[in-house]
Amino acid sequence: MFWVATSCFAERLAKQVPLSDAEKRALIRLEENPRKVKRGGMIQRVNDTVTELFVLREGRVMSFVILPDGSRQILRVYFPGDFIGSASTIYSKAPESLVALSDVIVCPFDKHALRRLLEESPRVAALLFLLSNAERVAMTDRLAALGRTSAKARVAAFLLDMFDRLRVTDDSIVDSFDLKLTQEEIGDSIGLTSVHVNRMIRQMELEGLISRSNGRITLNDMARLEEIGHYTNRLKDMDLDWLPVS
Amino acid sequence: MFWVATSCFAERLAKQVPLSDAEKRALIRLEENPRKVKRGGMIQRVNDTVTELFVLREGRVMSFVILPDGSRQILRVYFPGDFIGSASTIYSKAPESLVALSDVIVCPFDKHALRRLLEESPRVAALLFLLSNAERVAMTDRLAALGRTSAKARVAAFLLDMFDRLRVTDDSIVDSFDLKLTQEEIGDSIGLTSVHVNRMIRQMELEGLISRSNGRITLNDMARLEEIGHYTNRLKDMDLDWLPVS
DNA sequence: CGAACACTTGATAAAAGTCAAACGACGTGG
DNA sequence: CCACGTCGTTTGACTTTTATCAAGTGTTCG
């Protein structure tokens, strides 16, 4: 059977900046070994020796750490097209765990394959560098949220962030989406208890800011949610024009 | 007068991985235009159009954001040899402000200079990519601290982090260092008020964990501080052996 | 059908914030 | 050279926010 090779990651990058065929081929090679992981399955365990990175092709993955007292901090929720586990480029022991939030397809590749990619395609190297800077900015937004905003603001910002990120790869999303996270997981993402997350969500529902039906969230008043959450969508107005031309 | 060109940044990188002369020369070019900024001076203002990045050669710089209610979140404190403002590689408007915490020397360079560097020296590009992943991991540590640890733990982790990072470039440091931050600035870094930071510091001083004399902090019991702060030094055990050889 | 799991709500406790006042160091201008 | 103002630190009293504990309500899935 004939099968057209695709790269989830290349598609994602191509939304930001045009890619040459050679670059696309290089990116496709990163996704040569798709692997299915069941919901709840561990993709990477903290402190394990790792030499692999991943492209997430389908489903959702979270990265997190567990502190000595047993509490969990979710560091990031990943969506299709995301580049995961780049910490293994500098650390031979994983600083964080990766678990599938749904049934997923991940494409692992060795960091030596990444090395080859960086050598062969400087422009892709630059893109990866930029992408990791974008991740850094997303992280600083969350840092500011955890350090300086109220529980309600964090929930609002969290919902908007999920929404905007999902919309990058799913054009069908208008004002509602499946969260596919428990309230406990939301809490572990934004530094709250599940109980308090619930109170905030209920309150926002009563105020008509959002509505819910079996796990699906509808954002009824985005302007106000953005105000409450001090949210700015970083996915708009990225500027990659200065990149080397291919 | 003859002057030997140096690169603070190259020196820093060379501690991780050997650099070729060509690579060193390329890095030196980034620092061709040193600029002095007085303590308190603004290097970059949030939302301003930016096309420059910086290498910090001397002194200390902080990046931060101000939220609509006026509260400030300090995102990162930078030390000599650090690479600053990389967000401008993707955003034409600065997502964060940069202010000198002491009299500093920064070396601005245009992102087009960075582009040339990436094109000419794939190995340096790879190094930058790795470095930004290291920053990302540092950020996740702080995220976990803000989200899931107590005020005391955050202060302990903050002090240890400063200590370990300063020691990278200053071999003379044994167990004490100049913080050069007000308690308000510490609070704005770790999501606490200055009042509460003070209480935690006073408490740790009474317990003999740390001592102070005119702005200089001495860490008396690092093992216990690490335990309290759930701290791991990420600067040890980085592994860059897999990088392309030059 | 029932066990497990997520959600919801109430009562109470703990952690950190706010407000206010006082102290000390430091630098500047009269 | 000293007086004064500014800034950072320290401490106390009180408030607010969020966590904790506990119990009850669906819902789903074997």
Describe this structure in a few short sentences.
Two copies of one chain form a homodimer. With 246 residues, chain A is α+β, with helices and mostly antiparallel strands. Chain A is built from eight helices and eleven strands.
Characterization of this structure:
The structure is a homodimer. The first copy, chain A, has helices at about 10-15, 20-30, 110-120, 120-150, 150-170, 185-190, 195-205, 220-230, and strands at about 35, 40-45, 50-60, 60-65, 70-80, 85, 95-100, 105-110, 175-180, 210-215, 215-220. Chain A has about 250 residues and is of the alpha+beta class. Chain A folds into 2 domains: about 10-140, Jelly Rolls, CATH 2.60.120.10; about 150-230, Arc Repressor Mutant, subunit A, CATH 1.10.10. In chain A, the strands form 3 sheets. A 4-stranded antiparallel sheet of chain A has the order 1-8-3-6. A 4-stranded antiparallel sheet of chain A has the order 2-7-4-5. In chain A, helix 3 packs across helix 4, helix 5 crosses helix 8 and helix 6 (about 185-190) crosses helix 7. The longest helix of chain A has 27 residues, at about 120-150. Chains A and B meet through strand 5, helix 3 and helix 4 of A and strand 5, helix 3 and helix 4 of B. Chain A binds a DNA duplex (30 and 30 nucleotides) through helix 7.
